[in-house]
Amino acid sequence: MLFDFSPAIWLLLACVLVQLYYAAYYFLPFANRPPEPEPDEAAAQPVSVLVCAHNELENLRRLLPLLLQQEYPAGFEIVLIDDRSSDDTFLYVQQLVQYYPNVRLVTIDRTPAGLAPKKYALTLGIKTARYPQLLFTDADCIPATNHWLSRMQHGFRQPADMVLGYSAYAPEEGFLNKLIRFETLLTGGQYLSFAWRGKPYMGVGRNLAYTRQVFTSTKGFASHIRSLSGDDDLLVQDAVARGARVAVVAEPGAHTLSEPSQTWTAWWRQKRRHLSAGRRYRLSDRLRLGNFIGSNLLFYGVSAAALFSRPDWIPLAGLWVVRTAMVCFTYQRLSRRLDDPLPVALLPVLDVVYFFYYFALGMSLFLYRTLRWK
Asked: In this protein, which residues make up the domain named Glycosyltransferase 2-like (predicted)?
């Protein structure tokens, strides 16, 4: 009988339709949107760029000169927060302070018991900053261009209280690097396109801007000051709940570039920290993300079971062809929009590995919740 398929095939079809919805409503319209306008220098305002560093001397030697070279006529300061470093970070930044009046140093000797070290350090840095507009990056990042600052600050004139940017990882040899970049592309596609559709739920601290008023309205990191993760996404959650307006700046000139983890273990620990904040998201955001991630995980799980049913092989193959074509087309368009290219032929493989890796991470957090920080 025509269309007399097993329940497994109908379930797989439902999963594919859910994923098609996300591609058609969120990812592809965002990927195909026109380029953002050039920044209006006449309307620019001074900005404070904040960098928190813990034993990051070599990274700071690379980052700080690039920040000082930013082309931003409105003026800016760099607030370097030395968070309990035992290397020569203090001496290096002190030398810069003598030559560059817009470089300022905040030194943290100790973190009060029970508080998240980075959030405590950022709080003191924000209190020290001179200007109401704040732009954040990490010590192990670099701006993609000398116009990073001006492009990110242009987002405030949409108008907005928070600006979400994209932070890519440097391409290197090896499968792990490609998987890390795929995960970054997929995550970026989610939070940027959702925000563009008016559903902001997170940002990344490697490339994030907000006003001092936003930080004050959320009482800083007060709601999650004891949680190691969430200095970026949980702050966005709190700010949006209080009515903050969020803009997206996704032009390649506004990106930052980071060094990826070199080992599977290091990446595992990093992703555990990031994923742990998700349980604090608003219910609507958890459902929106859960539908997307769950439909992908369910598709792979049911597909594996359907392989043992010979009558399901033909419709299973058809659904795999449709979904694979969708994955390749959608993620290729996202990678082009975000200037973060990956081999198209490898995208289906990366998709399979990533979602099984995500499932393993979720199980790990459920069974073992202890996290590590620097």
From this structure: 48-215
**How many CB atoms neighbour CB 11 within 10 A?**
17
Model confidence, pTM: 0.92
**Angstrom distance (rounded) from CA 365 to CA 274:** 11
Q: How confident is the model at residue 177 (pLDDT cuts 50, 70, 90)?
A: very high
- Pick 41-268's CATH classification: 3.30.70.270, 3.10.20.90, 3.40.50.300, 3.90.550.10: 3.90.550.10
Average pLDDT over residues 295-306: 90
- pLDDT tens profile 120-148: 999 999 999 999 999 999 999 999 999 99
Residue 152 CA to residue 163 CA, distance in Å, equals: 7
52-64 residue pLDDT tens = 999 999 999 999 9
Supply φ then ψ for residue 234, to 5 degrees. Answer: -70, -30
Of 250, 210, 362, 301, nearest in space to 15 by CA: 301
Please give the biggest Cα pair distance in the chain.
82
Question: How many angstroms separate the first and last alpha carbons of the chain?
Answer: 61
